Structures are given as C-alpha cells and as structure tokens.
Amino acid sequence: VIAVSPDSTRLYIGDKNNHVIRRVLIEYGYVLAETLSGSGTAGSVDGTSSQARFNNVKGVSLMGSKYLVVTDSLGNRVRGVRISDGNVIAVAGNGTQSSTDGSEGEAAFSTPVG
Questions:
Q1: Residue 78 near residue 23, CB atoms below 8 Å
Q2: Residue 29 Ramachandran class (φ > 0 left, ψ -120 to 50 alpha, else beta)
Q3: Contact 72, 56 (CB under 8 A)
Q4: Which of 15, 70, 10 is nearest to 46 (CA)?
Q5: What is the CB neighbour count within 10 angstroms for residue 14?
Q6: The model scores a pTM over 0.85
Q7: Strand-pair partners of 4
C-alpha cells in the first residue's frame, strides 16, 4: 500500500509485516527510506512516532498535506499519522472486530482495508 505526495517527492508505505509506516524521499536523484511511524511491534497504540504500534497496515492515503489516513487492519481501526513528526491519533474504530456505526470511540470495523 502506497500513497504519493502531490509533488511526487515522497512515498508513504504501509509496511504491513513490520508494523510501521515508511517514508521514502526522492529528490534530485537522492533516495532515502526511513521509518515515519511505528515501533515495529504489532499492536494498536496511538502516541508519538516511536511509541505507536500498528497491526497489519493495509491502506495508506494522504489527507491534505499534513496527515496520512491508515487502515490498521488487524487493529480494526482507522488511524491518522501526522506527516511532520509521525505521531498517531485514532480517527475511527474502538479496536473490536465488529460492524458498528457511531462516533470515533463507538464505531467498530472488521479488518478494514483501503
């Protein structure tokens, strides 16, 4: 799963089996790959870039120029990742595997993708 910045100088990749979000910078013939967010340990934890945990990322999309929206498939949540520092917030889903409508903390997903 990949999202591309509007100027095509950055790729954002959901590295699902490593449980992280990677950023690849492509400028002037120089390429740098780095971990933007995630500790590398499976889980579903919001917080700073190094504290955050993902569990099987299956979707990454840009939301404007400041955030990524990530589907955390086995975490059953939709998460927001701030591009400037990799910090993670919950967008929707309470982490239980279900199909429930509601606000951010009440809604439930069953292995979301996309």
A1: no
A2: left
A3: yes
A4: 70
A5: 25
A6: yes
A7: 11
The three-state secondary structure class of 31 is: strand
Average pLDDT along the chain, 114 residues, taken 10 residues at a time: 93 96 92 96 96 96 96 96 97 92 89 92
Q: Which domains does the chain have, with CATH numbers?
A: 2-92 (2.40.10.500)
How many other C-beta atoms are found inside a 10 Å radius of the C-beta of residue 9? 12
Size of the chain in residues:
114
Residues 6 or more apart in contact with residue 28 via CB below 8 angstroms: none
Q: Are 9 and 22 in contact (CB under 8 A)?
A: no
